[in-house]
């Protein structure tokens, strides 16, 4: 047991100011008057709320779901759509409205929406933006508080929320010889990363998911007309949205499957029923998404691991869809013979006469092929399993035994109330995890609606601490832990 300082303002430090961290800060600020809480959001970007996803200035990077399904307020799905209507952004971007009437604005517009809603709390002083990177997190000797070391100075806190994003993708071992070569792009979202690629350049994109689709759309917008080859282990391209949105279809939660194979059989049976009822497959996956937490909790750890290992790639390409504007670019380029996606594994690479030579083996074949490209773009996806090693703040907590990687390699293990699980299996009352890093506990925490709900839930847990007596347990104590 240890006591919080006898102060009226509870000090909360949120590490990460992308959507997850900004949403936690916003919900907390709305719950309490300024004299009761002080919130510091530690984020190196100049504006809160954008993060990696929603700070891109590239016009072709659009939100991946209709605006009517995006909101900071879980109980008000139209919150963003109403703001968007009055923002003037749709008048400045007529391509945002698809032919079925759905709006898919540029991603930076959603970042602006989040920032504008945080702005009043920044002005009032309830929320403070610490513009820097968190480098170390230490616990006070008494156990009653925390100190977050940042590139902008020290931040003292009573409660810490870990809302960092996953690390950037590592360079595949087979491409390591290209790491310093001109034309190799390790961070595709860096400012003007694609600016040096000429209109007729041949391009390899390693990966075929959402980021890969973004790169094709951006290259096309920049006037590129050369050959683009996307390569991934299974060669699966992210799917698109239906012309007519339907209601979620099926029921996976009443009698949830207890094995990964059982869940797969249920999904296939429901897809067949949907086809018979003239319902699109997207509606089935919308129901899976809504019932995801119940499905995940019904699986034993070994079955969760099997699901992640064997089925996650198929889930990702159906669940994480691309905006129809982006899908239309990919379709047009494919039909025109300038874009293709193949299933293959990388074998080796080197620089030959100014070109980037990449060797690969197509799936189901024994022959090794080598092709030359003017540019190679790495879009292999976030390094989920490397978060505790590559993020300095998280690494410091892991070394102190206060957090640990979840057993599925998705992020940080948490309890069902979103508190971090320690090396010894207990939890710390004042250490929370918000957003995708907690997905191993909840099953679906990558989509914005789910992240928004989780941010609200974390804020509610923190609010409870304001209602408790001054003395609360901040020691590492047993569960309840996620099963």
How would you characterize the overall build of this protein?
With 483 residues, the protein is an alpha/beta fold. Helix content is 33%, strand content 20%. The chain has 16 helices and 19 strands. It has helices at 19-31, 51-54, 79-87, 89-92, 107-124, 210-221, 260-276, 281-290, 292-298, 301-310, 312-319, 324-335, 387-390, 392-399, 439-442, 448-466, and strands at residues 2-3, 10-15, 37-42, 127-130, 134-139, 146-150, 153-157, 159-162, 184-185, 203-206, 228-232, 339-352, 355-362, 368-373, 375-378, 419-421, 426-433, 471-472, 476-478. The strands form four sheets. Strands 2, 3, 4, 8, 16, 17 and 19 form a seven-stranded mixed sheet that branches. Strands 9-15-10-11-12-13-14 form a seven-stranded mixed sheet. A hairpin with a 6-residue loop joins strand 5 (134-139) and strand 6 (146-150). Helix 6 (210-221) packs across helix 12. The two termini are 26 Å apart.
How much is the radius of gyration in Å?
23 Å
Q: Enumerate how many helices there are, as a single number.
A: 16
Structural class: alpha/beta
Helix fraction bin: 25-40%
- Through-space gap between termini: 26 Å
- Give me the count of strands: 19
Average pLDDT reading: 90
Low-confidence stretches: 471-476, 479-483
Question: In percent terms, what proportion of residues is strand?
Answer: 15-25%
What characteristic shape results from the CA principal axes? globular
Strand count, sense and barrel status of the largest sheet are:
7 strands, mixed
